[in-house]
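Extended Data, panel c. Modelled sequence:
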Amino acid sequence: MKKRTVIAMSGGVDSATAAVMAKEAGSEVIGVTLRMREASPQETAVLDEVVSKLGIELCVLDRKREFEERVLLPAAGEYAAGRTPNPCCECNRYFKFAELLAFAAEVKADELWTGHYAIVDKSSGGAALLRGADPVKDQSYFLYRLTREMLSRVRFPLGGMTKTEVRAFAAERGFAFSRRPDSQDVCFAVPGECCGETLRKAAGLPETPGRFVYEGRTVGAHTGFHRYTIGQRNGFGVALGRPAYISRIDASSGDIELVTDREKLGCSSFFLRRTNLLMPALPREGLSIQVRYRSRPVPCRVTEEADGVWEVETALPQYAVTSGQAGVLYLENRVAGGGVICL
């Protein structure tokens, strides 16, 4: 009997290539598109090309309302509280993979494949999440909230490949989508508009004007702190004669504090809340933490507190650690777990 594989298809190069790989592996392939917004003509063209050439079924699940309720509105609430959320991490566990795995179970599929650049290692009987082979495209940081049970039902076939290899694989098989440019923004991004403003509008929240404050004095005004984040250097139109950085956002007053000494943005101790453990137990040694997607991991020590809160102490101060962002723990190239940063 053929293996039945569900492929999450977004209209991008990576998910389309995953579908080709599943078909070549001899699986019965069922494509599924989780519709969170209106598809672009480019995305529709990719989906049409793959479905036509491979002769596979494509199911479209319209989940725009659920996406707004479970991802956009909570993220808007985080911005309104003066924090900078990472909606992609939340989306993966509580919306995207939850919906896709439910669909896979409904059609009695053996496995769900997606085009993420990460690896699920099931060789030891469990399901370990590892970094992808391409250090530029590795997406394990965004997947840290998935549970081990979820990971046991998922495969990331591109995890051992580089982006260049993925494009070459598709091009060798004559697929036009191999030349499509990568998407650079979150899926709900509006051109020319910051993420916080897009979410504020989606939630119908009021703007929150306030002051820019430097060394206790007012040096400017803003129309909403949801447009800014810790460590930001540009985009606030304040002239101090030297570069300034956002060091603190006070949601109660609306004030945004600035510093001109970058070293004051260093932080070596903070907490992780709403933690998720992807190993049987948290290792006592050998851990490193990544506090932003593009930041380098740094060695750390983690102490487990009450109610699933972990205290993190880093070997070196980290620049612009921000409440609401994801702090992801690694044991070499394996994701040990992580949580939401709280200062």
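The mean pLDDT is 95. This feature is highlighted in the accompanying rendering.
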